[in-house]
């Protein structure tokens, strides 16, 4: 997993020798979840490539739903994960905005108990000076990844070679497999996606995005009214229309994730008191009347 352009598909292609086309721009290459098999030593490994939450073809809600559906189906079949690779471009000079918010959704999806399965993989080392890359890596470890590392996550510098990909995967094949939080929330607790920790984190993130876009729209409206010539007014109108469309899409995603007061109460009781699904159905009339 990881942002668009972080090197997920490139890693899979390098490790498996199967190149189905690798993106080299900010436009998303992977728009569906893809599973590819390869051999690591004497073990068969299945690599599952997912779109990033900043996908250019699908909304964040669609991406989370796709990941949730795949995890739920695989969990019901008894398939657990040996490792979860989260890719990050070391060429990015800062961790802020969308990448940071995506990381928070990822953390909620995995849950604390699965953090030991996570490997934080840095890519694009050939695009930065080694000293600069090491400095950025230390900042990531000391700040943004500090809690995850404390909970058992490890880091790996991927050097875009077959040897580097095999070395990483060989570390994972012997690990004990386990589930992630989102699998247990949906399959075991029968929560809806919007009731899960990842769903609520995504809602919070979308709420912040909507607020910022609304503020920008207000400023554009004020500038448009004060525009002294037609060209400036037309340019501002185009900006307004584009941003308005983005805001409308964001609000639609938020509406799909919004919990009613009953849903919030239900999720809280089942999560807090660890009440099983069927037991909760039995107790619900006594709780809510």
From TrEMBL:
Domain G: 1-58
Family annotation (Pfam families): MMR_HSR1
Coiled-coil region(s): 226-260
UniProt-recorded Gene Ontology molecular function terms: GTP binding
CDD domains according to UniProt: Ras_like_GTPase
InterPro entries: GTP-bd, P-loop_NTPase
Record keyword tRNA processing present: no
Keywords of this entry: Coiled coil
Protein name, entry field: G domain-containing protein
Organism of provenance: Pisolithus tinctorius Marx 270
